[in-house]
Specification:
It is a single chain. The chain has 312 residues and is mostly helical. The protein has a single domain, classed as Farnesyl Diphosphate Synthase. Helix content is 79%, strand content 0%. Helix 3 runs parallel beside helix 6 and helix 8 runs antiparallel to helix 13. The longest helix has 26 residues. The relative contact order is 0.11.
């Protein structure tokens, strides 16, 4: 009997922990950390202290988790209405909004303490600015009121790149702001591709995503425009900023060509959800590989190998 009660207690505790884990929307966080890491390696020119990396990524994880938990509280009404989100912890009744709020505040507070104590105050303030911007600007002011919600709101998702650079250099120069701009420009094609796939869900709850208000043709046109700006902008890290080298430039050019091809194909058939899904999935891979290109390009071994090429 005692063993059965202990088993039930452990099972219940596991379910509670998992619910709080789900509250942070964990699938979103890795992409934010990738841009943070890219900013750190670019700032450190391939040399990043392991402890600094660990604390910065941990602080960034906690800040992002806090923002997502707060978002779940704010959007619990539309989450309950949409079938896709109805089973999230708050609308399903697994976590109460008050408990979620305390959890989010604790995560944000711990993030600030870690970053300010073990990294620097600038990185800590930037992480907090990301939470505030995501909630106050995107979630509250923009998401339910304008088709430009994801365009302006994309700045929140771009802040981790600044956090990464600031963690290493304790300043902000042109290079991290360009990385910020790349994430900012990438966000509309990425998110609008998703919005094309779940257009009916947004329409059901009255969220004015661009495909709902302007239609698929206008949306794919905007995706194409942002893609045309994003791809050449990604090469500015090579020239004139010289923040990254030829290896990154090659990676950015190849990825950019594929990105443009997929955006163009979607523009030709705006209602094709399979093409939208293909672009959405590739956009994730694009950003991850672009950031990986920044990291690998910054390594001393890469500089050495590239330097030997003229002698081959």
């Amino acid at each position: 009997m005692i063993e059965a009660n202990l088993s039930q207690t452990h099972q219940r505790l596991g379910e509670i922990i998992y619910s709080y884990y789900q509250l942070t929307k964990p699938r979103i966080i890795p992409l934010l950390l990738v841009t943070t890491a890219a900013g750190m390696w670019m700032a450190g020119e391939g040399k990043v202290d392991p402890f600094l990396l660990l604390i910065t990524l941990l602080g960034g994880t906690l800040a992002a988790a806090s923002a997502q938990a707060l978002n779940c509280i704010y959007d619990r009404d539309i989450d309950y209405t949409m079938e896709r989100t109805r089973h999230r912890p708050i609308p399903s009744g697994k976590i109460q909004p008050r408990d979620a709020a305390l959890f989010a505040i604790a995560l944000g507070t711990l993030s600030f303490i870690l970053l300010s104590a073990f990294v620097n105050l600038l990185s800590a303030l930037l992480a907090m600015a990301g939470i505030v911007f995501y909630m106050a600007i995107y979630t509250h002011l923009l998401k339910r009121h304008t088709t430009q919600n994801i365009v302006i709101g994309g700045a929140a998702g771009a802040i981790p790149a600044l956090v990464g650079w600031a963690a290493v250099r304790n300043d902000l120069t042109w290079a991290p702001w360009l990385l910020f701009a790349l994430v900012f420009l990438w966000t509309p094609p990425h998110f609008w591709a998703l919005a094309l796939m779940i257009k009916d869900d947004y329409a059901q709850v009255g969220v004015p995503m661009l495909p709902v208000v302007a239609g698929e043709e206008a949306t794919t046109g905007q995706i194409w425009v942002y893609s045309l700006i994003l791809v050449p902008s990604s090469l500015l890290l090579v020239y004139p900023l010289h923040a990254s080298g030829l290896l990154y430039g090659l990676v950015a050019a190849i990825l950019g060509f594929i990105f443009l091809k997929k955006a163009w194909l979607l523009k030709q058939v705006p209602t094709d959800k399979d093409l939208a899904r293909s672009l959405f999935k590739f956009s994730i891979l694009y950003m991850m590989l672009l950031c990986a290109g920044i990291v690998v390009d910054s390594l001393p071994i890469t500089h050495y190998l590239v330097g030997t090429l003229p002698n081959i």
